[in-house]
Q: What sequence folds into this?
């Protein structure tokens, strides 16, 4: 009996499996590598119209060792305007000869004027997080110019602009940028109702893009309310410790020097828990290496002099950043919100609704920053111009 | 299957020859008549030699009968013919007793009185001595004749291992095993199978180690064999296996005496069949088909790594093409972008869907393999070149298949050859097609469903009462060190527990 | 033959240890972090997992140590001695109903999830039916073979969980661990209830009453069953912690299947497989399969002991269309979720109630 059962059920399975509903050959899919969202020209105040640009890969042009690639561009940008992204996407499908496939989406760009619209950013993101196709590791950035124009920037060494942008966002060698923002993180932050920063891209020329500064998202306004430029972003990164490497130009007595920052560690503490007189203490510990100096002072024997210079410079920058955040942006860009949520949960619960809006406890809080710098090494050359005198 | 076995059990081997009764069944006293009878029974074949002689001074007539080619000529010449002719027996003694006791220098000798016995013995290579005036025939075991020398086994080569392999002659095979195990408990139980072929079949085991229930069950199943001629050990295997619907071989087969010996010492039963160099090992489990004796020759780290590599290659051989189909047609999201784009680029212009493409290549490969096996060695190499270069290369350049698929097919092929047991390797290759069909219909989900189904089959399958999926299910962790990895020799103190052997330990009990 | 066959044809203590985690871990595990994160703050649900785990261990232990007193007897047989026969049959039938409903739930759920993560156009009915057919094939085989299947698949599932945990380490964020101990009592009690529900696998821990008595010579069964539950608790702890550390409490509460999302979040090194989630889900199919086979088999056991003359294959085939029909009843995922919750309450009440009732009666009456 069981033997017949075995045969029977195998047959059943084979018969029922012969559907192939979802089979779609790889070469019949159009892989979306980058997407950008702009405000369309026909936008009115209450009715924002959007332009969605999808960057599709042309695999044959990317080429393998055997096929070589050739001269044709390796990407194809399809752009359309409309009211909702899903709708536009459907419209784009009509123009693509292949099934659109977003699993390999790498970058998601929003132009500044889109994210400045209240609530719009969140609505748009909903589509991207709800759809099963998107990975949580998609990189998100805000662009100064029209976002779609960034998808046209084609540098010499990379055939697909999206890839260029994603590598650019992942490059952590500069201190003046925000750490890459993954769609998943963004999603978490929106849920957690905290303000945060987004990488900010700008076109330099028709072959390159610069990743510099950040756009600041205020959670209560539900929109991006401003930007920080490069140096101020660096100031922020000193305070939050979001820095892997960077350069700092300092002045010592007679001249200028350049310090390569090797390591930044910051610690945050709330010292005054009174709602209206919140005081935060931040300790920033920096270690660095002298990368360039034209001072006559022997750097090898006067490392602390350089350290002092660095401390002073950083402090100046940090204070400037704090002022900008508290008076101009009135938005918590220093991740105090996350700290308060984690370590002073009850306090945070009582003030989170007016943290950086309305009564704005953030803007009224006191922020004391202590900077400690340590220069580890004077570099490979010991002296600049002076001979050591045997005094 | 058991029902089949039972029904076969009823009809026992009926061996009455259906000849016309122009000869006598009982042996008479007249020499000429007796010789005529045997000639008639065998229909006077050309190779039947009847040498008539006269013995002693009173010229008593006698004859020796044998079949040319079945006997060892030298033996017949020196130990029978010569000794008989040289002796001058005294008158009026019983010649057959005299020859039996004093003259013939062959140890395997017996007296029989029926024609059936005589003809059967002659056909098996014995020499019969007829003496006039007596109704007793002396049968002398002179079996020998032409057989192959002991050579290195063709189908299971080892780098570090003995170079001896079984041959077609069962006597030699038995002695090969005996040479390795000089244990008085080593048992060889002879059966006879084949209604017409009368092949010898020997069940070998070590008393005291083996589970007696196992031997009993094997003997019971062997009784049920009802065939005219067993084509090698394969047919025996098919008669006694548990499930005929299973794609998996439920008995091991080997050409290597060392492997048979290893199995005997584990507590398994080895079945030797006359006329084939392949002996059967029972019971068998899935993982053991992936074992090679090489694992034991090498040091344990190497042995374990090689074994794990073999497990991996079994998985590759089964799954790779189906995973390719599933990834290309259903789940490209699993491929990293760079790999994906280059596969997409290489598939640009390929006219078939991945399934057809993979099927095409897989079937081509199977045909090539089959053709290569049939052809003589020298032409076999040509097939390799034709297959590899001409078909592979030009199929790619003609744009019929993508270069990736050629890599996949090649890798699968190589991986399937890493399975030491050929019968298992074939099963794997077959299952692969099921997986490919499943992948083409439901992608990875289809693959996993078929995988689960095969596992269900495996856990329900038994080889002589031993679950085929041992030692994974039932989970016998203590057997893992011998079956999954190859632990250092000091740790392998116990015989595999799943065999429920009488003697559980490999070590000398006095040392413990 | 008999000895060789027999020793391989009965359930062993070790089988119970493997069977418990493999039957408990199924769909519920995939959304476990969500339901535990919802009522709690930060990582607080860890304590409720521990508490709920201890309670589950206790209940399982009670059930097992009751059932080992009746080796070789079916539930109905020994329960009849404790309560009267009609009540025993009624209780068994309730368990059978639970088994059938869980089977339906799992079949439907796997169809829904594969629709979410693997397929777009393939009809849900087809996915479910294909799965159900494979389950039928397994249930129609021998009962010991089902335990062997558990042993075969469970290590794979363990490896998948292990890989998930190890590779998500790189994506964790320590700040997500804070704050500690901020959940209120209400939240804790709610989360404890849910912990029992998920660690007890919708009440399937009660099934030990049926399976343990099948063991011919139980020796260390209660200990082995406890190890099994401890393993489940450990797996819950590991995955819950990792999910929370990667996503944070609030996001976790908002993800439909946080464990699959966790698999999506991580990237495997080496560049062969970009995404772990499809692979993980495929492996998880085995876990769900294990559960479904056992719950289906439980229903068959009950019917076998109630209708003594019925052939096993017939019972299996008769149940199949019913299961397929019921699994098609929920209209959408919300109704499916809801029915899952109801099933879980039903199962826990049933398993706890029957275990306690029988255990107490056994102690009081001292039936051998």
A:
């Amino acid at each position: 009996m069981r033997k017949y059962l075995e045969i029977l059920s195998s047959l059943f399975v084979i018969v029922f499996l012969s559907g192939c509903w979802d089979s779609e050959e790889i070469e019949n899919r159009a892989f979306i590598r980058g997407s950008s969202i702009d405000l369309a020209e026909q936008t009115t105040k209450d009715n924002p119209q959007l332009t969605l640009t999808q960057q599709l890969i042309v695999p044959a042009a990317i080429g393998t060792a055997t096929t070589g690639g050739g001269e044709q561009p390796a990407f194809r940008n399809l752009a359309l305007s409309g009211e909702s992204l899903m709708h536009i996407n459907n419209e784009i499908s009509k123009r693509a000869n292949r099934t659109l496939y977003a699993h390999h989406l790498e970058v998601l760009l929003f132009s500044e004027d889109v994210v400045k619209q209240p609530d719009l950013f969140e609505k748009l993101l909903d589509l991207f997080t709800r759809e099963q196709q998107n990975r949580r590791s998609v990189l998100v950035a805000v662009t100064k110019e029209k976002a779609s124009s960034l998808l046209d920037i084609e540098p010499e060494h990379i055939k697909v602009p999206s890839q260029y942008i994603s590598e650019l966002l992942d490059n952590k060698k500069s201190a003046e940028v925000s750490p890459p923002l993954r769609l998943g993180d963004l999603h978490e932050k929106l849920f957690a109702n905290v303000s945060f920063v987004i990488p900010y891209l700008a076109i330099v020329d028709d072959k390159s893009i610069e990743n510099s500064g950040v756009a600041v998202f205020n959670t209560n306004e539900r929109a991006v309310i401003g930007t920080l430029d490069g140096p101020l972003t660096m100031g922020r990164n000193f305070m939050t410790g979001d820095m892997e490497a960077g350069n700092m130009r300092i002045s010592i007595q007679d001249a200028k020097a350049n310090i390569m920052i090797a390591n930044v560690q910051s610690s945050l503490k709330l010292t005054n828990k009174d709602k209206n007189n919140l005081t935060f203490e931040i300790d920033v510990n920096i270690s660095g290496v002298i990368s360039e100096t034209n001072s006559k002072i022997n750097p090898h024997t006067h490392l602390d002099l350089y350290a002092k210079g660095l401390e002073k410079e950083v402090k100046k920058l940090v204070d400037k950043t704090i002022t900008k955040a508290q008076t101009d942006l009135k938005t918590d860009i220093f991740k105090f919100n996350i700290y308060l949520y984690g370590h002073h949960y009850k306090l945070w619960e009582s003030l989170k609704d007016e943290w950086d809006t309305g009564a704005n406890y953030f803007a009224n809080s006191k922020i004391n920053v202590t900077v400690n710098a340590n220069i580890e090494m004077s570099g490979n050359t010991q002296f600049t111009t002076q001979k050591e005198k045997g005094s | 299957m058991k029902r089949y076995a039972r029904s076969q059990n009823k009809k026992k081997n009926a061996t009455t020859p259906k000849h016309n009764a122009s000869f006598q069944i009982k042996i008479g006293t007249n020499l000429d008549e007796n010789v005529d009878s045997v000639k008639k029974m065998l229909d006077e074949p050309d190779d039947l030699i009847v040498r008539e002689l006269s013995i002693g001074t009173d010229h008593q007539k006698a004859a020796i009968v044998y079949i040319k080619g079945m006997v060892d000529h030298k033996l017949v010449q020196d130990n029978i013919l010569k000794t008989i002719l040289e002796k001058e027996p005294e008158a009026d003694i019983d010649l057959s007793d005299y020859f039996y006791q004093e003259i013939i220098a062959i140890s395997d000798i017996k007296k029989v009185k029926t024609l059936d016995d005589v003809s059967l013995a002659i056909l098996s290579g014995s020499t019969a001595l007829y003496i006039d005036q007596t109704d007793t025939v002396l049968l002398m075991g002179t079996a020998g004749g032409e057989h192959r020398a002991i050579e290195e086994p063709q189908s299971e080569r080892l780098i570090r291992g003995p170079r001896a392999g079984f041959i077609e002659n069962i006597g030699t095979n038995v002695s090969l095993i005996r040479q390795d195990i000089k244990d008085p408990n080593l048992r060889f139980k002879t059966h006879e199978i084949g209604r017409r072929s009368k092949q010898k079949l020997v069940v070998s085991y070590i008393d005291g180690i083996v589970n007696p229930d196992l031997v009993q069950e094997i003997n019971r199943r062997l009784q049920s064999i009802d065939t005219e001629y067993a084509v090698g050990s394969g047919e025996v295997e098919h008669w006694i296996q548990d499930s005929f619907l299973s794609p998996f071989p439920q008995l091991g087969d080997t050409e290597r005496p060392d492997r048979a010996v290893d199995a005997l010492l584990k507590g398994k039963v080895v079945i030797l069949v006359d006329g084939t160099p392949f002996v059967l090992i029972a019971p068998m489990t899935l993982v053991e088909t992936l074992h090679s004796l090489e694992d034991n020759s090498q040091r344990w780290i190497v042995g374990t790594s090689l074994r794990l590599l073999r497990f991996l290659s079994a998985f590759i051989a089964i799954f790779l093409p189906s995973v390719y189909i599933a990834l290309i047609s259903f789940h490209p999201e699993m491929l990293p972008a760079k790999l994906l784009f280059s596969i997409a680029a290489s598939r640009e212009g390929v006219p078939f869907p991945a399934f057809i493409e993979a099927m095409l290549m897989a079937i081509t490969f199977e045909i090539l393999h089959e053709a290569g096996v049939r052809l003589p060695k020298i032409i076999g190499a040509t097939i390799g070149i034709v297959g590899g270069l001409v078909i592979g290369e030009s199929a790619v350049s003609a744009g019929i298949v993508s270069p990736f698929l050629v890599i996949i097919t090649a890798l699968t092929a190589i991986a399937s050859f890493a399975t030491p047991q050929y019968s298992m390797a074939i099963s794997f290759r077959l299952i692969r097609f099921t997986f490919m069909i499943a992948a083409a219909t439901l992608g990875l989900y289809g693959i996993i469903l078929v995988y689960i189904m095969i596992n269900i089959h495996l856990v329900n399958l038994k080889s002589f009462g031993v679950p085929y999926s041992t030692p994974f299910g039932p989970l016998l962790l203590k057997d893992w060190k011998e079956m999954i990895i190859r632990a250092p020799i000091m740790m392998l103190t116990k015989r595999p527990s799943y065999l429920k052997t009488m003697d559980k330990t490999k070590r000398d009990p006095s040392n413990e | 033959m008999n000895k060789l066959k027999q020793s391989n044809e009965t359930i062993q203590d070790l089988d119970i240890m493997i069977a418990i985690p493999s039957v408990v871990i199924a769909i519920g595990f995939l959304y476990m972090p969500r339901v535990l994160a919802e009522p709690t703050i930060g990582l607080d649900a860890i304590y409720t997992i521990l508490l709920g785990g201890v309670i589950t261990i206790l209940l399982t232990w009670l059930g097992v140590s009751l059932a080992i007193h009746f080796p070789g007897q079916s539930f109905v047989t020994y329960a009849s001695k404790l309560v009267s026969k009609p009540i025993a049959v009624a209780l068994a039938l309730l368990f059978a109903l639970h088994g059938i409903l869980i089977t339906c739930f799992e079949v439907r759920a796997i169809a829904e999830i594969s629709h979410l993560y693997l397929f777009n156009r393939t009809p849900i009915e087809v996915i479910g039916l294909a799965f159900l057919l494979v389950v039928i094939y397994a249930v129609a085989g021998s009962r010991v073979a089902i335990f062997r299947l558990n042993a075969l698949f469970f290590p794979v599932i363990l490896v998948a969980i292990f890989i998930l945990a190890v590779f998500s380490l790189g994506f964790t964020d320590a700040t997500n661990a804070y704050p500690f101990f901020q959940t209120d009592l209400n939240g804790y009690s709610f989360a404890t209830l849910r912990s029992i529900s998920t660690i007890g696998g919708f009440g399937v821990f009660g099934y030990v009453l049926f399976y343990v008595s099948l063991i011919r010579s139980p020796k260390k069964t209660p200990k082995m069953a406890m190890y099994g539950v401890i393993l489940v608790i450990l797996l819950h702890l590991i995955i819950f912690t990792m999910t929370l550390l990667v996503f944070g409490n609030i996001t976790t509460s908002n993800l439909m299947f946080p464990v699959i999302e966790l698999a999506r979040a991580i990237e495997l090194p080496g560049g062969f497989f970009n995404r772990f989630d499809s692979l993980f889900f495929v492996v998880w199919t085995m876990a769900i399969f294990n559960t479904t086979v056992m719950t289906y088999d439980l229903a068959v056991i009950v019917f076998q002991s109630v209708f003594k003359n019925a052939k096993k294959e017939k019972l299996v085939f008769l149940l199949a269309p019913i299961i397929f029909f019921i699994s098609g009843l929920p209209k959408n995922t919300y109704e499916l979720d809801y029915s899952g919750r109801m099933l879980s309450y039903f199962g826990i009440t049933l398993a706890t109630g029957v275990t306690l009732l029988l255990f107490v009666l056994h102690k009081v009456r001292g039936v051998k």
User: Anything to note?
Assistant: The radius of gyration of chain C is 20 Å. Chain C has a mean pLDDT of 87.
